[in-house]
Amino acid sequence: MARYNKEYFLMHKDIPVCLMEISDDGELGSVRLNNSAARHFPPGGQMNNMKFHEWWRDRAVPKTRHGAVPALQKLGYSSTNSMLVNNLALSLSDCYWIKPRGESLTWAETNLFTNDFVDTFGELTINRDQIIDLKNVTRFNFATSQGELQKKWCIGKDGRRYMVKGNYGMSYQQSLNEVFATELHRSQGFENFAEYSLVSIRSDNNVEGLGCMCYDFCSENVESLSAWELLQTTKFRTNESLYFPFKQVCLDLGMSEEAFNYHMDYLIMTDHLISNTDRHMNNIAVLRDPDTLELIGFAPIYDSGNSMFYNTPYDALSSVDFSAIKTHSFIEKEVRLLQYVHDRNAVDLDKAASFAENGFSIYENDVFENRIRIPKLKALYERKLNCLSDFQAGRNIWRTY
Fold it and tell me: Per residue in 78-94, is it b (16+ CB within 10 Å) or e — as a string?
């Protein structure tokens, strides 16, 4: 049984929003809310105590992240929760953190947006045998980022924070997919997307490989709230589509219906084009001002790596059944997501076709695949273009499928 013998203030910058008991292994005990700062309480935990406990657990690095167990062992942590506590639950996505009761730490002294740090855990999950790039060592290591892929946060020479991501298996396709999506958005003239670029990483057994990186779109003045966290502020049935509950929450926060529809129409259609099957509710987010709590708008489109049939074997690429594609999103069937689109012309298919003429050269960087997948990926992309062309012509293609 956990012993809750330590107390911490949950802080939003320098505002204490509650006092929490936390055990040595990171388990949350009793929570006492500071009613005068209730507006600053995390939205994901506002509904009830159980929701707040879930918010706290979700803040830790997922136990399923590739390489997490050996990294924890090497760093001497019993769990990702204990690592979360040791690193003051600091994040590069929002302005929440924990302060041990009785200590005089401030947001200015601890936050990761302006203080140097090394993501030691991230270094170990990407490179299990050694820790590299230790020039910015402080006592605050980075601990919180969602997702199961190897990831690490870094600080550039210009002080900007950026995330480096690896891949599953031997292929580099997930990183290449992020760059492919970046160039697709750029060719469309769409502006609200996270820009990914390829980087060289040193992975298991000191092997040089490819990853991708993008700069942090959050700061001291801008924090991110995932769609999943916002959904915890309302009631919804577990068997219903999450699209309309999410839309209502955004509208209640002050987003215009026009802005919501514009972003989501474009997101759904481009995800369909590249067959992104991982647009779950932690891969959609909105931005807000952490001081005024006012909504800024949608976060840039990010995390599009699980796309372009990255996990489909080569010999199955010629026989992909679009009607059977399942996705982690508002609903399970990929094609049925199109029924939420208001403006069927949100994506310029002529530009998408022109982009494909040279865009697939990105995949030539995947030396493990010897370029044999490229013609098949291009053929699938062209099939998707034809589907969206039918859709724009007024055909409800989900009914056909």
Answer: ebbbbbbbbbbbbbbbb
